[in-house]
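Z., the sequence and structure:
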Amino acid sequence: MRIGFFGDIHGRVHKFHHVLQKVMEEYQISVAIQVGDFGISRKTSSSIEALGGFPIPVHFVDGNHEDFRFLWKAMKNGIIKEWEKNNLFYQPRGSTLEVQGVKMGFFGGALHIGRPQKIIKGNLITTDELNRAVYEFSQFSPEILVTHSCPAGIGVGMKGLDIHHWGVVNHILMAGFDPGPKTDCGETKHAMLWNQMTQRPKLWVYGHFHEQRVAEVDETKFVSLPCLEHYHEHVIWDTEKKGLLIKS
């Protein structure tokens, strides 16, 4: 059996629905994992319902471009249970799930480069959320970890683009946050998670940077997924062979 992983979709649910059907036909995936910047909002929620939901279960983490006010209200009022009728499942920060015999951990959130950080119930990852994730993952030992961004400064090697320089300066550095080195950037909270995990995952999948890239640190393979543009930009995990198929 196979699991499909997909990058940022930024609210383009009709296109994602089309891509999902194509990948299902070609690779027979039965579950989809989306790595954040889903673009969840009242509008996208209504669009999914109008489509009749997704054909297979779609599990997603939050990125830095979600309607967080809507997301937190949905969690508080139990609206996310209604999403499940449409095969959409939100995975909160620090949550775990066993998918087709594969243990997976989820940890959303990331810094903004184009706007001020939303600190309270927003894109910013809190120390409490980090500590909860460290505890949950230590108990669960996920084989695959799904985040929106990657750890900063541990050797994954994501490079900050020159066009984002002033956004990083204005909204991250001058606001007192640390994106890590320019040639190895990401989330310092993810680096803390990495350093505190008692058992590290075999595979760490993330998006945020809108490019496809593979790197290895110690014995963990880090895979960055591009922004959703073409149906072949995804990765597939074969649960029986425990192997990764990367399409680009």
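Residues 63 and 109 are 5 Å apart (CA to CA). The chain has seven helices and twelve strands.

Let me know what you think.
H.
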